[in-house]
């Protein structure tokens, strides 16, 4: 059947004076040409250019000269890099466990297909569709010195002076983490929900017959059934945690905290790599370090996944 | 047929894609000379008619010339300037401040007007012309923009906050120097620590200049504000912080944060401008009831901010671009603009216009007179070499010094090293 169709097509092409084989080769390329151009222009060329820049002392208005590893060496004596790298790494360590466990628990709770659960699913997902600027403003108003939280605590006479959520180095960082968790739960919950829907229902029936309650069903059926998805969530959440920007930027008013103590890698790259005095060479080197770290995270989690599959 | 449609769609998509990439270009109308003039956030209800009339007048006086006016939004203006400069697409006449102008002048993008239009110097206030004159590493000494408008203003204070904090100010002898403020810190902190802030939290490079710190060496090739005077200045802020004279959230605050804090009644002193009185009257009526005014608080000369009109060194019509920039910045056109924009003129003698010297007894008039006086005697303290990255670094380092994590000397050494590496 396929042969007949090809023959007929070839016949049409031959009738039009076009070599059917060359036509068959060109058309697919024409379809993929736009995305190839797009990827080359906006991903591959900038990526290789960043690698090149990272070995130069170039600024935005000056091509710069080759300086070898100087940018990378300077980075390790740069206080701001040390702070940013530490904060981004701490973000990963603190955020990922919450992002893997909490959405799974939420998904298990709202997996049931009832109206009330539909409401909760929507409610948990709402922060995901909110713009990061709105989320930032919302939480700034909550956590500000005169904000909702301090106001409530004062009204309840729990505190006499405001808690410095937005000015203390650690409180600002942990507040930003709380915002990240709050706004990301719904997204990962949705991934888990798709996974839970694919777990064979007979496993729950069998567990129920064996006398398992909800909690034991969660630990003995849901959790093992979501193991691969948990690794995926771990990968996604650790990558986005290391690249954190919006939460800290908004909560600190763009300053990266008092004395820049809450700077993250992406904030530092933005500060060094944008503006009229941008040091594109140095920010390129910062970007490469970030790329390598994210590559390592992917590599480690790929190994973990392979082992868990075995 | 189906195959033909597929081919057509694929080919169309490919052409559209390439067309999109190639769509960047310029065009010029034939028969006329077109100049491109760029302003920063000035195309709006308030200013559009002013610029349209100005351009129409210039075009009428110069037949065959067409001015294409483009305006850029407030945010990321420096990014836009640098992108245009890197792409060789900077307009012929561009509105910008001294800091981006210094960087672009170093990159050879701006015309040295001291060479191209030396007769212009006499038309501008010496302080303004001097601030538009750059020298430094890898830069031929020259004037890289025509001064356009200036801004400065008095210092406002909240009498009720000061009184509650145990400080009485004699209205006939109000504080005028930074040392006066430092002397209030202990009493203020003792009575109001944590509740109110005496002044804004982190000093800027302009504050260093006003205190009398030498900011750069004579060659303008290195920063020197980590000298003994600079350390002494930062130490005053450390002492004020330790005395409780400002709150922790001031360490993160910007200029807008300072204004918010003053208008909210939780800050005693604020550097404002001639039009702040009306703003406070409308937006903070309770603060207005206790508002008082004094000269811009500075140990030396008060600070001014300046905006300039620069000329692209690669413009094909440099003479015409200079003529247009001089036309926009001439005394009459500056005066008309200043009245609309609530700013002050940089052209010689314009500040003596009655508009800037009202004779009535209102606080608005007093603020205007004080501002005009500061324009006559002020200084543009911020060195153009001191970039926004340096400002960020200075703020971060001083914040750490205030919190006791490093000393004043260490904070300034680190900032000077950082800025000298980028000069």
UniProtKB/TrEMBL annotation, chain A:
Main location, first listed in the record: membrane
Segments of this protein annotated with the region Disordered: 1-20
Annotated keywords: Cell membrane, Membrane, Transmembrane, Transmembrane helix, Transport
Transmembrane feature ranges: 26-48, 90-111, 123-142, 170-197, 218-242, 281-304
InterPro entries (alphabetical): ABC_transporter_permease (IPR051393), MetI-like (IPR000515), MetI-like_sf (IPR035906)
Subcellular location(s) per record: Cell membrane
Domain ABC transmembrane type-1: 85-301
Entries under SUPFAM superfamilies matching the protein: MalF N-terminal region-like, MetI-like
Membrane topology listed for this record: Multi-pass membrane protein
UniProt family annotation: Belongs to the binding-protein-dependent transport system permease family.
The protein's name in its UniProt record: Sugar ABC transporter permease
Protein's organism: Bifidobacterium amazonense
From TrEMBL, chain B:
Family recorded in the similarity comment: Belongs to the bacterial solute-binding protein 1 family.
Keyword Signal found: yes
PANTHER family: MALTOSE-BINDING PERIPLASMIC PROTEIN (PTHR30061), MALTOSE_MALTODEXTRIN-BINDING PERIPLASMIC PROTEIN (PTHR30061:SF50)
Signal peptide: 1-22
Gene3D superfamilies cross-referenced by the UniProt entry: Periplasmic binding protein-like II
Alphabetized UniProt keyword annotations: Signal, Transport
This protein's name: Sugar ABC transporter substrate-binding protein
